[in-house]
Design a protein that fits this description.
The complex is a heterodimer. Chain A is mainly alpha-helical. Chain A is built from eight helices and two strands. The termini of chain B are far apart. Classes of the chains: A mainly alpha, B mainly alpha.
């Protein structure tokens, strides 16, 4: 799977997880507003849960999906449940929704929570380390811990040593360092 | 009687990466960390009706939500939990020979748990049970957040092993 596919799937996973807890995965929006008294009673009878978790039949939340378009990622609700999703997310200007805002997709300018962003950041970091193209010749030119971490920052990204070490120890690069007896530089 | 297969998944094959430190790598420490991940992440997802296996997302709902649980269960959320024995048997184990930790329903679990695991993981049309994958099989992996947590655990235990090797232990 490509990195964008991994990120797309991770965003869907996290969205489903947050919504199951009746929370928005969007930074700053917190818990979803509770259900009205009547609807809560109905939902409790039908599903055993009175939570505002956007899950009566499961049709809409099962339609949350992502698409990779070139080098971009799109996440949304596609198909016949798109209108229902818009009622909760309130993106459309034309339609007035009677529902309270229960946004589970970010609008322009909004971001996911820091917990979700950290998961994506970790995913990118591990992916980059796993897909490094490094020769033993290049590695053997490195003599000190500082030089190694400077090299890793160039190749993987500007992360702390601890995070770079985590990524390397889950990649084939660790085997190359082992072969060159350089593991102790990590 | 047909014996159900045990559904387990190896999480780490150390041999594939590092040659110099297997003796210092603590399978027990790694097993303990994976056990925590199972309790705090994997089972929490299952309890919400979500598959902890990448790509499977929500567990399929019951066909007739009122027919089951019908007073037998806490709610109609498909969380693989009636009395809790299946989830109690979902554990992390040290592989007896390979440098690996496995997760799943072990040989030592009850026959009923093994049967339930097989039924949920693969579905059973005769029993009218749809697949609700909760233990990775074959090429499956856990969801991204769980895999990231496992990778961090690997790095932590490997880091300790490397330090111990450096001290000549």
């Amino acid at each position: 799977m490509t990195l964008l596919n991994d990120i797309g799937e991770a965003l869907v996973e996290q969205t489903l997880s947050y919504v199951a807890d009746a929370k928005s995965p969007i930074d700053g929006l917190g818990k979803f507003k509770g259900l009205s008294k009547d609807y809560k009673k109905l939902k409790l009878e039908e599903t055993g849960s009175g939570d505002a978790n956007l899950d009566l039949t499961g049709s809409m939340i099962s339609s949350i999906d992502y698409k990779v378009i070139g080098d971009k990622l799109e996440i949304g609700v596609y198909g016949q449940d798109a209108a229902k999703a818009d009622g909760h997310n309130q993106f459309s200007n034309g339609t007035k929704s009677n529902l309270p805002l229960r946004r589970f997709l970010p609008a322009e300018g909004q971001e996911y929570t820091s917990q979700i962003k950290n998961i994506i950041d970790d995913t990118i970091r591990f992916y980059k380390a796993e897909n490094l193209n490094v020769t033993e010749k290049k590695l053997s030119e490195i003599e000190t811990k500082s030089e190694l971490y400077d090299f890793l920052r160039l190749e993987i990204g500007d992360y702390s040593r601890a995070k770079l070490k985590q990524a390397v120890l889950n990649s084939e690069l660790s085997a190359m360092l082992d072969d060159l007896d350089m593991l102790d530089l990590l | 009687m047909i014996k159900p297969k045990i559904t387990t998944k190896n999480l780490l094959q150390l041999d594939r990466y590092l040659k110099s430190i297997p003796d210092q790598f603590s399978k027990r420490q790694f097993r303990d960390k994976v056990a925590i991940i199972l309790e705090t992440m994997v089972k929490v997802k299952i309890d919400k009706g979500l598959s902890p296996v990448k790509g499977y997302r929500n567990f399929a709902k019951y066909k007739d939500p009122k027919k089951y649980p019908a007073g037998l269960k806490q709610s109609n959320k498909p969380n693989l939990k009636l009395e809790g024995d299946l989830m109690r048997d979902y554990k992390a184990y040290e592989h007896p020979t390979a440098n690996a930790v496995t997760v799943g329903i072990h040989n030592s679990a009850s026959e009923l748990s093994k049967q339930k695991a097989q039924t949920h993981n693969f579905g059973n049309s005769k029993l009218g049970v749809v697949m609700r994958r909760f233990i990775p099989q074959g090429q499956d992996v856990f969801t991204q957040d769980v895999m990231n947590a496992i990778k961090k655990a690997i790095a932590e235990v490997l880091g300790i092993a490397i330090k111990q090797k450096g001290k000549g232990k």
